[in-house]
Write a structure and sequence with these properties.
There is one protein chain. The protein is α/β, with parallel strands linked by helices. The termini are far apart.
Length: 279
Amino acid sequence: MKTTEKTTLMAQPRKRSSSSSVRPLVVKVGGSALTDDSFLKGMADYVCELKSRTRHVVLVHGGGPHIASLQERLGLEPRMVDGIRVTDEADLEAVTMALAGKTNKEIVVRLREAGIPAVGISGIDGGVLTSALDDARFGRVGSRPVVNTKLLDIILENEMIPVVAPVSLGDDGAPINVNADLAAAAVASGLDAETLEYVGRVAGVLMNGNVLDTLDESGIASLSARGQITEGMIPKLQGALSALASGVDRVRIGSLRTLKDGVATVVREPRFGAPAGIS
């Protein structure tokens, strides 16, 4: 894989370099699971297994509970709209400290304890993630991240795992928050990843309490119309569709157990016929 600078806008396909023999796997972890020691250990073991098979793995993380806890300690009120954290200037300080600081370093420590050479960075470092501020409802939040893969390529070529906090740069040159699910999709697209996985406590995308085997855009629209998509799942499904449209082969959503057992939800591009997973 070349270390020449490559910049990719989310949902735009990227030509794969002919010298790239290994397509990375991108894993996004987040949610309340990151406050659970047993999950963190299991996550590190899972990433170690993936690296032994795939060689190049990138981990992107959220950290909502850590952010909310710090916001409350600072007298700030956490606010969410459509699964996206509303972030004003004061909130941004808490987001930066929680994501690029505490959460990022805790994950790096756990990976290194498992024998994995991990490097913690944020989207600001090396200009990995930038985004326009395109929705005033969310404050200093970017929803269409652009990825510069140069630093990620250097880390991967040196057989290490980048651990990316989604604190990024706005088009005004100042820090902004980017939802981790959307950031992971953009990173997967930018690196021409083979697979994107969303890992958390939920077993997969649920309908009537059951995990859907597969889901496509029509199925997502159907679930949304029925009010069966929770706020936290909205950006995951948005990111999944964007990644697929950009050339990522497969997107899976599930828990560590369902991903290992092969029973997590697979989001795929639409085909002819009935919506996937919906009847």
